[in-house]
Amino acid sequence: MVMRNPLRKRLPRDLKTEFGKYLVIFLLLVLSIGFISGFLVAGESMIKAYDESFEKYNIEDGNFSSKKRLDDEQRNEIEALGIKLYDQFYFEQRLTTGSRLRIFKIRDEVNLVCLMQGALPVGENEIAVDRMFADNNHLTVGDTITVDGTGKVYTISGLVALSDYSTMFESNNDTMFDALTFGVAVVAKEAYDQYPVRGMSYNYAWKYDEKPVDAATEKVVSEELMKQMAKITKLERFVPGYINQAIHFTGDDLGSDRIMMIVLLYIIIIIIAFVFAITTSNTIAQEATVIGTLRASGYTKAELVRHYMAMPTIVTLAAAIVGNVLGYTWLKDVCVFMYYNSYSLPTYETVWSVSAFVQTTVIPLVITVIINYFLLNRALRLSPIRFLRKDLSRKKKKKAIPLSGKLPFFARFRLRVILQNVPNYLVLWIGILFADVLLLFGLGLPVLLNNYQDRIQDTMISDYQYLLNAPISATDENKKLESLVQAAMFMHEVETDNPDAEKFSAWTLKTLGDVAREESITLYGIEPGSQYVKDDLSDGKILISKLMADKYRIGAGDTFTMKEAYEDTTYTFTIDGVSEYEGSVAFFMSREKLNEIFDQEKDFFCGYFSNSPITDISEDYLSTVVDLNAMTKVTRQLQHSMGSMMDMVNVFAVIIFLILMYLLSKIIIEKNAQSISMTKILGYRGGEIRGLYLHSTSIMVVISLLVSIPLVKVVLMELFYVMMLEMISGWLPLTIPNWLYVEAFVMGLLSYALVALIEMRRIKKIPMDLALKNVE
Amino acid sequence: MFLELKQVKKAFGEGENRVEVLRGVDLSVGKGEFCVMLGPSGSGKSTLLNIIGGIDAADAGELIVGGENMSQMKEKALSNYRRKHLGFIFQMYNLIPNLTVRENIEVGAYLSDHPLDVDELLETLGLSDQAGKLPNQLSGGQQQRTAIGRAIVKNPDLLLCDEPTGALDYATSKEILHLIETINQKYGNTVIMVTHNEQIAGMADRVVTLRDGKVRKNIVNTTKITAEELEW
């Protein structure tokens, strides 16, 4: 007769009696697995939708703006260069709310519009706005928007995604996109035709007749294209597709946090596996004599290992299944929402992701099984007789650690409880450490960004920083004379009478992309005796900004190599010191030195620092005005994109606090249930018993929380460093104020206070006859 | 002989703390015999029982059960030996708290290729009415009967009992002894029972007395009485 192991009948009963324990572990696992799988599935689905959008919505190969509308002849000449042109004229409107809308005519050939909700606009008074812009400005279908100045009122007929604006870069030169105050919209022909010619941007999209095979070829082709076009019309802007951030930023960012999320999941799984193992070894200690008897009767070690592994495996498996279901449904939507919160992506279809399944389900299961198997195998290796004698200590003849008799009795008693539970407290500490890192991460990031925003004004070189922009036609090598005239005119046009204004020269080089992602670094050439940059730059000294030093972890004496964008020329600089300037990653040297290095005229300059606005230079010659608003764009966008995620991280951290503290103090109380029962019989009062058995855990929680702080600080800083290295170009100071550590400590304590209340009830419920029943 | 022990030695501890518990035990027990092992505490009887049961290893000497030499067996083989041939009963019942009486007995049945019929055994144990109860709902005697059921349901060749009545009152002890006697007669298992109660020797086929780690007496009981007739 083949019989199934009767021990398995214990499992549902175990589940019933230990329901609380299994429930919290289950929930934590479901949340972790669900969220991460939702994150991965959402990411992969979005990437697929994004990748397919190029073909589906016929996304442009590039676009340019011409100062004047192209006539038929110009158009034919340009198209003869091997491209086809499409009108993408737009009109920018400021709304009464202060936001800016870039309004296009409905497209029907390239950069097609994805309708997400409602209907496309018809007639003169309807508009379809970008879905994300609507979300961020609390607009929906049927609402009206009013144009500032003209008072024109539009009714929103629908919400759309423009395939060439998945990321809201207002200008391709912006350091970060702006999904909060800038958006795009489309109107019907009737409405569009009402716009005045003045203020119209003559933007054209192009598609190559023959698409270049790769980015390198595309670069060569597009540069040639630009030169040729510049001969035909006056270019105001030229953005070949491969460098268009509005199109490509989304693709680069989607899925870039993947590794971080997966590591997060594995850490949680490992902690839970250890919690399982600790609770199970506690059960083994409690059931020692039963195990001894079973082993004596002939049950093999393997059978018992399997038996004790069953619950952890079942719970993890169940959590993996539920987690995946949630991951593909609700939590996926949460994550999709996060993406939709930052990017204007078209509609998507959920894809089944094998890698997400392996990473969130298969690997966690394997980790749980391996850790539990390893620890259980070790715990059950003892001989049956040792189990029968309840002699489970690994060390032979474990002697009591001598404690000074001078210590009060309660202190000694508590110390004994602590010493008895060292492994439990160790796991608790590791858990606290991890939760602390998460919590401080969630609390710290917004503070970090806020701090940066608050301080940036003080750290800026000047309140206004103007970069002058020579028209492309002034740099045409083929029309030397014309260029020279243009250039001379330009130099004349850009002189100012503002006494605050101070000329600087600048050059932009690209990093090699070996440490962080490739980025542009501005090198400033500063006037001698500058009122804005006070560092000593005499004798050809080269300084780097403090942020540059922080980001690349370099300082005086180090060398740093950069290259000319799209060229092979590299420059290696030896750094003489670090400037206190915190606004951006930058190099400083004297203007003379910079002009010399980059082979410019001695009096070459390309912008002004000024503490007051410069009003006497035409706006046509200002390419980027670096003002406060522009500099905090990064942090504002990060706050918006990551804000909801940080709240989730905080909640998650507190849940981990609660669960670990709950499970481990539960184990400690249960382990001592019989002794607690005995102290009750002896006549100890509730407060005294809590003082003995609960306060030992309280003490360890406080110590763990305190001891964690310096370690968390180190880990956190490294975490922020790596994350920022991944996420942003430029840099911001990674400083966490000390009060945040206090806040995390208090939150840890509050979590424990809640757990302590539950444990007090548990102690209260231990019956006195427990000690009498189980005399062994 | 079914069970043979030759010069079995066992010591615990090292150096000054070294205690020689068994100093060369020779013993033979025939198949189906009811053997009672007497001796004061510390005489080594429990250690000897554990060695016979394969849950403790002798330092020296030979142990032969059913013609097989156990002395050289590795843990895996020993485990298999226990699984197929042995039943253990301890002073403490060591029942699994969240399994019912029937299920606790099934825990034993699972190990055997030819277990006894559980219902019939419950009847024999007088536990039919208690079959669905959990251990904490039972009296000490009922718990011990369950433990006995768990040990004998696989119909072991050898039933080892370590002070099975040690925690029970007089009347219940007699009930348990009667049960073991019945089982011995009904199923023909060899029984070795360790006890410090000399009166129990009356029901044995063979009485072995240990003192200071050696067999001091080994008597075949010719005036065997039933468990019911025992008095102490």
Structure notes:
The complex is a heterodimer of chains A (776) and B (232). Chain A is α+β, with helices and mostly antiparallel strands and 776 residues long. Chain A folds into four domains: 192 residues, no CATH class; 166 residues, no CATH class; 198 residues, no CATH class; 170 residues, no CATH class. Helix content of chain A is 52%, strand content 15%. Chain A contains 25 helices and 21 strands. In chain A, the strands form two sheets. In chain A, strands 1, 2, 3, 4, 5, 6, 7, 8, 9, 10 and 11 form an eleven-stranded mixed beta sheet that branches. In chain A, helix 11 runs antiparallel to helix 20, helix 14 packs across helix 23 and helix 15 runs antiparallel to helix 20. In chain B, helix 3 runs parallel beside helix 5 and helix 5 runs parallel beside helix 6. Chain B has a single domain, classed as P-loop containing nucleotide triphosphate hydrolases (Rossmann fold), CATH 3.40.50.300. Chain B has six helices and ten strands, in the order E-E-E-H-E-E-H-E-H-H-H-E-H-E-E-E. Chain B has 232 residues and is α/β, with parallel strands linked by helices. In chain B, a hairpin with a 2-residue loop joins strand 4 and strand 5. The interface between A and B is medium-sized, with 30 and 36 residues.
Q: Over the alpha carbons, how many angstroms does the gyration radius of chain A reach?
A: 33 Å
CATH superfamily of chain B: P-loop containing nucleotide triphosphate hydrolases
Shape of chain B: globular
Q: What's the number of domains of chain B?
A: 1
Structural class of chain B: alpha/beta
**Strand residues, percent of chain A:** 5-15%
CATH fold-type name of chain B = Rossmann fold
Class by alpha and beta content of chain A = alpha+beta
Please give the CATH architecture of chain B: 3-Layer(aba) Sandwich
Distance separating the two termini of chain A? 37 Å
